[in-house]
Amino acid sequence: MDSSLLVIALLGAFAIAVSKIAKRFVPEIVIFLVLGLAIGPDGPMRLINERNSDSLDLLTQVALGAVIFTIGDRLRLDDLRRRTWDLVPVNAAQLVLSAGLVFAATRWAGATPQVALILGLIAAESGILTISATVKEERAHGPFTDLLMASVGVTNVAVALLFGLALPFVLLSSGQGASWGDTAQVFGRLVVLSTAIGLAGGWLLRRFSRTSESSGELLLLLLVVLTGVVGAAVAADGSVVVSTLVAGLYVANAAPWLADRLFAAVRTLEAPIYLVFFVVAGASIHVDELASVGLVGAAYVAARLAGKVAGAAAGGLLAPGLRSGEAGRVGLALLPHAGMAIGLVALVVEQAPWLGGDVSAVVLGSIVAFELGGPIAARRALRAAEESGKGATGGRRGALPGLTSFRTFDRVLVPVGTVEILLPRLPFLLDLVGTMQADLVAVHVSRPGSAPAEDAEHDVLTLVQEMATERNIACTVVHRVSDHVAATIVETVREQAVDLVVLGEPVRTAQQEPPRWGLVSQRVVAAVDVPVLVYPVDPAHPERVPSVYLRRAARVRTEPAQEGEAGDRAARH
Question: Are 479 and 447 within 8 A, CB to CB?
Fold first, then answer.
């Protein structure tokens, strides 16, 4: 009788139970890794052997690709442009310093120049999946978490690019007969072909996701495409990390609403993905490799640790948007080391076996230390930033509201566009604000260089103020000039001490992709600390208001008048 499935179920239950008890002291990932180590070929239980570990590797490759795909959500170009002056110095410094220190330290310890250079490039990598799992476990949310997740994505893309550029020259300089054609193929597979595979997968998701009506259909399509992307990258000897990251980045920027649905679908599977991936990864750990790497391995671990933390801290001195010590915590959280690093080692072993033995012993031995200690460091960094427990998974910690509660709003912010679009829905918006007896804050965001003059108040604001005055509603108008609509609205919410935001968002249909304004409302909802009311807008006719809202607005206008007439009649009698 084959009891393999029963053993897997019991191990999974054991892992979950132990992690629930011990995660107050160590991250859940460490529990999974230790369990994997116990059941691996070098562990006491030996339930996973060399034969079935190859089959499990295919499963973990798909799991890795699925989670890395969601990193694209943190790499939306609009957000990256706003954080360029923070992202660039921090990550450039930690990449350069970690690679440079590892190269110098391993050369001092006795490694050849070629081995030292390869070790330096691989050391710059950070474990995407480990960091993502730690963020999820901590339910972390906030500016520091966003910077960290953007940093790990940018870091791994940069490492893949630099490694693809450098490895051909390393092979040529080693004098082992590699031709220019052979070395050019390495760069083509690792960077160019992997990027093309990711773009193709992203296009397929964008093209066919709109026809998926149910979440089940969407998840099935997503798994099929991601499995195809991972399979193509593996078959082409490319990078699974680069391919799936590019696919996520493409979808996030080319089809933001579809991306939100796709990312949400993947996140429903994150918990089992992390369990499977890290248990199998733990089974692949060879503790004896850590003891066999000697002085070169010790130099690698120490130099990488110093380079990540000190490099990020040094880059933070040039980042205007970071608080004191925040950049150093980013470097601390970037210490996990796996995923793409293992893939790069396999590539070196394949392309240059005369260098692969030394490289694999050092890198795989160090991964034992960084995968066990890295999640602890990342968790400390997130908690030091005071962003643990603020994510959407668990929400903000605090008392549950009562069964009956009342909320008053004193200042309501309404973003306004053109007169043509606003005019049909303005009575509804004014009725809404008037029934709350609140003040209105109307904000209009103009694109730089658009008419009227950038320092002039827009005509639509004059219209809003006049109609609000007619209804005895106190109105403040705000005109801003910016390319970043969502960020400007969020800033105005804070400047004007607003209690409620009211936004129009395109109606979401399966056949028609809404315009980019839907992304603006989603970002406002995620960034502000006040309630946000979002009402639907027809993307084909944005000037129209849904009839149900017009009926409600009409009823609000007539009911007070009827109540007033009834009161007059009662007074006369």
Answer: no
